[in-house]
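Much of what follows relies on a compact textual record of a protein's fold. A record is reproduced here so that you can trace the correspondence yourselves:
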Amino acid sequence: MPPNGALAPLKTAALQLDFICEAFRQPIAWDVEPVFTAAFHVDEVRLENIVRAAVFFPLVQRADGLHVIFTRRASHLYDHAGQISFPGGRIESTDSDAVAAAVRETYEEIGVEPQYIQLIGTQPSFLTSTHFTMKPVIGYIRQGFSIHYDESEVADVFEVPLAFLMDPSHHLLHKAELPGGGHRFYFSMTWNQYFIWGATAALVRNFYHYLAAAQTKLLR
């Protein structure tokens, strides 16, 4: 579908770790992605028959700037098999909160130990069409970490430059007709052979809106 509005890529200064950390330290007035306004306002309501989950939005510094780590889920999994996702999963009763769940799942799925994770902040949860609420936890992975992914859950781990993800010209909006009638919308971004779509793409899109608002406020 045609893009919903002309949005500009973020400035280079807004893609730096120091800027992102500063943005999360102060109040930023911003609006969630308008295509999914209702889906991003689930933190304020009590929902029945949903699975609460948390995902880690992992930033890592490379020579050409910040990158974001993604996983490709194993093809045999019951939920979201083969899809591109962030490390994460259900919030268990043993987790103190969504942040603890995201950190635990990151270690279990891709082997990044908690001591390498610098927490930055959280974003609004997203209600998926499969009745999960995904709470994104934004964080930075310090140098010295290593990736050892669990092959029973993860088929691949890869990185995408944050600058690519924060350029809305790479965000495509789709309209899917449903077999029983009606339709649904979803965003996608394609990086090399990886097709990032659905809830994961929605979280990326929402992160863009947040940083764009922070850029307006903090970069004069």
In short: The chain has a mean pLDDT of 91.
